[in-house]
Amino acid sequence: MQELAAAPFPGETEWVYWQRKEAFLLAEDTYARWVMFAVESGRFRYRIQDEEGTAAAGDVVVCPPGARFEREVVEPLSFAFVAFSLRADDPVPLPQGRVRIGDTARLQQNLERLKPAPPHDAAAQHAYGAHYAADIWLQCMQECNRRKETSAAPADAAMDAAAAWLREHVDARSAVSEAAARCGLTPVQFTRRFQRVFGMPPQPFMLSLRMAEARKLLVSTDWTLDRIALACGYENGFSLSRSFVRLTGIRPSSYRALHRL
């Protein structure tokens, strides 16, 4: 399989990381270069040309040069804004609009490395930040290719409803099993059907939602780790901490210290 053999590589890359942004300064804009909004947490509505929707944690919204980009924050938004150039003669189809990233752990690692310390300090940007931004673009390209390979898969309203239910029940410890039961499916049937629609099993999908909620609560509240764990579907703070370190490479207490203003 020759995936991405001719994939265009971003050049002249710039980025800014925004923490819990409550509103965009401009409700719409048009950019001279390609831009990506890679969401860590929160939600925003968008419209790019004929496509509109809502982006949330694990989504990357891609806007091509010259396209009108309308946007509105729905829930305080933490995201990386990346602007970059591509060669005008790149021959392959390129992602546009919302891209759901399957490997959310990899996306989260890239986003962590794009964060300056202190926030918004351009001089503190990671020396290899352009490479991490390029990897987010590579993920978008890979998802675009995967969509083509599975484009014959039919739309599935039941799975869309199940994904929406999972987003609303991050605190449910057996959320995936409950979602399967709501659909009248066995866990195996539900997993296969969910993956056919979203390109990933429901378990990592739920894990990414829980991690996004944990990061949000660590920054926005003074709750103990045990209380945050219960709100994110974990039995206790130890279980949450173990998953958090495995996926982000940093302890919850250290994450809170780094991101509290």
Automatic annotation (TrEMBL):
Keyword Mitochondrion: no
Annotated keywords: DNA-binding, Transcription, Transcription regulation
Keyword DNA-binding: yes
Top-rank taxon: Bacteria
GO molecular function: DNA-binding transcription factor activity; sequence-specific DNA binding
Alphabetized SMART domains for the sequence: HTH_ARAC
Domain (HTH araC/xylS-type): residue spans on this chain: 160-258
PANTHER family: HTH-TYPE TRANSCRIPTIONAL ACTIVATOR RHAS-RELATED
Name of the molecule in the record: Helix-turn-helix transcriptional regulator
Organism: Paenibacillus lycopersici
